[in-house]
Design goal:
Layout lengths: L2 E2 L16 E6 L3 E8 L10 E9 L1 H11 L4 E7 L4 H9 L4 E6 L5 E8 L4 E4 L8 H12 L5 E7 L10 H11 L3 E5 L2 H8 L5 E2 L3 H8 L6 H13 L4 E5 L5 E4 L4 E5 L11 H14 L4 H16 L9 H8 L3 E4 L2
Parallel strand pairs: 2-5, 2-9, 3-7, 5-6, 9-10, 10-11, 11-12
Antiparallel strand pairs: 1-6, 3-4, 7-8, 12-13, 13-14, 14-15
């Protein structure tokens, strides 16, 4: 039996514009060990300055940002094994709704190390293999929540046992309920799910390079890549470029969002913050280019914080003032 602290609501297609819930999906969650060190160097000792554990995964990170912005979010995630109770407790401590779908094997444990100079290393386990019954259970848990959702965020890697077309099935189900979708994944699940027509897809530069099979080096490459990815089936594209901001592509326009130069302390999780803030802004009815600006502002502000931390709404507002957005095409 699933454990949940969320309530079900009856489906009603005509009320979709009155909905406010943003559902995030994390199929491969983790307990993250986060370490801050004085330096990261080869063949020399380093000293740990701080260490803490958190509930990890792209979707969970997105829910943390949305919740801190005052948005309504529900995080759906697997949980199980020896690390399951700790993960459950960590996730509940964030204060937003969550639904845990039990699995037999233990969720993964990841390690992130950052130093005070902005260098970082992230080591992720691949995640446990899931049984067909577990896959069916999480799909059911997500689909039954769609009638009260405005956005569905499909975030992160797909663990062994999850079919590559799993995200595609959820995109199709979301469309039936009038729910917008954001796709934030990699490799085969990204390639196959774009064809299902998500509302927006948000690859970072390495993910886009793998998807297109080519290096992206220049501004013109980024613009062309966003257009090509949209041609693959997505309604809109947000190509995340780290410290260089993002390129956004709609049916009619291409926009470039450029952040100010800042001292990045820890870029890990900045892309999750960008996707979350973009979705939050879109759920508020803001224009695509303005949502792009909010996303880049949140990602940039988060990268300036130590460890894996996420900018709150006030910090993002200050950065928003410094982000410029202009049409490219």
């Amino acid at each position: 039996m699933r454990r949940t602290n969320a309530n079900r609501e009856t489906s009603h297609q005509g009320s979709k514009y009155n909905r406010s819930l943003i559902i995030t999906v994390t199929l491969n969650p983790a307990v993250d060990q986060n370490i801050s060190a004085d330096q990261l160097v080869f063949e020399d000792r380093a000293y740990i300055l701080d260490s803490f554990e958190s509930a990890g995964g792209r979707g969970i990170n997105a829910s943390r940002v949305i919740h801190s912005f005052g948005g309504k979010t529900l995080a759906v995630a697997f949980s199980g094994g020896e690390s399951g109770p700790q993960f459950d407790q960590l996730l509940r401590s964030y204060g937003f709704q969550s639904e845990f779908v039990p699995m037999k094997n233990a969720i993964r444990r990841n390690l992130s190390i950052t130093d005070k100079h902005g260098l970082s290393v992230k080591l992720n386990e691949r995640g446990p293999r899931l049984e067909p019954a577990e896959v069916a259970a999480v799909e059911q848990a997500i689909v039954k929540r769609l009638p009260k959702a405005k956005w569905l965020m499909l975030c992160g890697s797909v663990p062994p046992g999850i079919p590559d077309q799993f995200y595609s099935n959820l995109i199709a189900a979301a469309k039936q309920h009038g729910v917008s979708t954001l796709l934030d994944t990699d490799s085969d699940p990204l390639t196959l799910s774009i064809e299902a027509g998500p509302t927006v897809v948000t690859p970072n530069q390495p993910e886009a390079e793998r998807l297109l099979g080519r290096a992206l080096l220049t501004r013109s490459h980024f613009v062309e890549a966003a257009q090509r990815i949209r041609d693959m089936g997505a309604e809109t594209v947000v190509l995340s470029l780290g410290s260089r901001g993002a390129v956004g592509c709609t049916a009619n326009r291409v926009f470039e969002a450029v952040p100010p130069r800042v001292d990045a302390v820890c870029p890990i999780g900045a892309g999750d913050a960008m996707a979350a803030a973009f979705t939050w802004a879109m759920s508020k009815g803001k224009a695509f280019y303005d949502a792009l600006r909010w996303g880049v502002a949140a990602g940039t502000a988060s990268a300036m914080l130590p460890g894996i931390s996420f900018a709150n709404l006030e910090q993002t507002k200050e950065m928003y003032k410094r982000v410029t957005v202009k049409p490219v095409v």
